[in-house]
Amino acid sequence: MFESLEEIISIEKEKNISFWECIIEDDCKENDISREKAFEKMANMYKVMKQADANYDDKLYSQSGLVGTDGKKIHDARERGELLCGDFIGRVIERAIKMAESNACMKRIVAAPTAGSCGVMPAVFITIQEEKGYSDEEMTKAMYVAAGIGEVIANRAFLAGAAGGCQAEIGSASSMAAGALCFLRGGDGTMIAHAAALAMKSVLGLACDPVAGLVEVPCVKRNVMGAVNAMTASDMAFSGIQSKIPPDEVFDAMRTIGRNMPDDIKETGKGGLAGTPTGIKIKEQIAL
Question: How far apart are CA 282 and CA 288, in angstroms?
């Protein structure tokens, strides 16, 4: 398992192979499976993401009634040409909301890397494939790039909101998606790493403060922020902008910030938005 992006970049250069190939080689070795089998499993993961997107129910609400149907609202506004962000980013926003709502409504999703952040990668991946015409094979390779970034984050810090706040969930998903986007656009390991770092830097310190302890408010809408943040980080990195703080050190900073966060803003449903008068009122109403 990789402990740093620097290690992956070093192997990429030493062996003259792509970033994603470093990850699949490690995957095959760790799980003792063939390259073909490993690639097939990852391809199926992406297939499930697309199926989950296609199976969104625009009439379904979560059991609490807090979330549901907002994906359709964005869809309708986009169709009417009313979004300031335009059609492309509008589709990213729409998909992020739809997937996160599907999670809250107990429909099938892919935790990427967590259920709470499940809307970020599909929103970015499916929309960019739709826009640019990338093949499923290319998207599967990008999935490996994202997985490699996620592995490093998990080893250096954490992926769970309970451990490090929402920066660990939405932040990690955004970082993974940003790096994968740079790969799809032809970026090397260095560019991929800086895209990941730029995305993570933008959400350092993000609290995990779910109202009533449910992965619904504000979680669903934060998936939108994570997806759009990944797009902007990719654009910056692809333009030649680099993080002044080395990527691996950015992840270390996320770990330190997470450890220093009060428990009330680490998925306990006590602080932040969950602790507001309205947040408390919602919790009491749901408990009735």
Answer: 10
Residues whose CB is less than 8 angstroms from the CB of residue 179 and which lie 6 or more positions away in sequence, other chains included: 145, 146, 149, 192, 193, 195, 196, 199
Question: 49 lies in which domain range?
Answer: 5-287
The fraction of the chain above a pLDDT of 70, given in percent, is: 100
Amino acid at site 126: I
Which residues pair with residue 170 across a beta bridge? none
- Give the model confidence (pLDDT) of 46-66 as tens digits: 999 999 999 999 999 999 999
Amino acid at 219: C
Number of structural domains the chain divides into: 1
pLDDT of 268 above 90: yes
**CATH classification of the domain holding 33:** 1.10.4100
- Report the 3 state secondary structure along 44-72: HHHHHHHHHHHCCCCCCECCCCCCECHHH
Of all residues in the chain, what percent carry a pLDDT higher than 90?
99
Residues 6 or more apart in contact with residue 284 via CB below 8 angstroms: none
Is the whole-model pTM more than 0.70?
yes
